[in-house]
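Quick start: what a row looks like.
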Amino acid sequence: MPEPASHSPARGGSKAGSGAGHGRPNSVGLNPMELESIFRLLDGGVDVSRRRESARMAFRKASIGVEIMQPGGGQTQINVACRNLSQTGMGFLHSSYVHIGTPVVLTLTHQNQKPVRIRATVVRCRHVLRHIHDVGVRFAQPINVRDFISMDPLSQAFTREMVDPTHLKGTLLLVAEYEIEQACVRTMLRETSMDVVVASSVAKGLECARKGVSIIVCDDAFETGTGVDFVQDARKAGLRCPIILMSADTSGAALDRFRTAEADAFLAKPLDQNLLMRAIAEFLLAAGDKAETAGPLHTTLASNSPLRAIAESFVEDLNVAAKTIETLSAAGDIAAIRRNCLRVGGSAMSLGYEPIAKLAGVLAKSLESAKTIEQCIVPLNAFAAACRSARKPPVEPAPEPVAEAGAAAAAADPHAKPDPHAKPDPHAKPDAHAKPDAHAKPDAGHVAKAA
């Protein structure tokens, strides 16, 4: 988990690394123009056929602070030139070889201008040319790339490259007037675990959105109103769930109009199925954790747990909490949101709702340094959606009483005939409560003996 950077001296006898000083911004000693030529060389050699779960976003920084942990316990502090960033790792240039498996700590600047320390491990180091090495590190915990990169909502750029459709859960509201458009989106999402709710007008879409959904995909073309109208009205109504706007009009005038709305992302039509799922995953799979989804959640407590009844009644509290969080979000009350998410998270883990507890922790951590709601909108939306998706377990029918073998057989086949070859059970005891059959004929053998 990323942690705020400390301004205290590093422990363990830290020392400056090679090329870190002498006025140079990075260990390779290259200026921005020279760095860009190296980056283009490296990017041109990327195997585009190899798809990754997390997309590498260009992150050109001439100087990023890195602490290299030495085997003896010391630390080497260097500045490196950063190349790219993803949810799971980062690439940078360094002036010497770094052994695979070496632990490092990176210091990145959050969007709120505060430094954040991120622990990672070196997983790649290859020589490029002269003294320059291309180094790749993997983070100990996934990060939210949008915390460090300002992404244009109209760019159609998303931090996930591969998405497992089954990991997409929750309720998607599709606001589109054209029935063919509705059918296309439904078909593209058929392999996901999402419930798709359709609204054919802006007014109907707002009505459905107020009932609570995980994410909204909205077309721009309507007989009455536009997609931009829907987004703006939704934000005025305090709806903070992610909204993806789609349109076939990509002219400059249209893009300028889309930019005035507060949509979280834009998709150009005709829609690409992979891009649609990447856009949805961007906002539903917070921080790269597949457990952090908005699918139906049930308590994991055993049915005989003494806390089971409390866990079931907790579902109502979670739904109220989702509405409260979204109301506070519209009001911009960061402190109150954090109090509520800590309260819910503290109980969720004990009552068998671990995904909600994890999301509460992510949101609380994000709120610590946030100055505006927008800076933590992704974990906030994920937390609210998860609370709303909590469900009580279905009521199981009471088990039927076990019938005796004979009665069960008769009930199974009332027309069954007795087996003429069946032998009586010599150990069977007569039924004291059985009544004689008035229509039964006497046994000739027994009558003769009696006579």
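That is the whole record. Residues 308-331 form the longest helix (24 residues). DSSP finds twelve helices and 13 strands in the chain.
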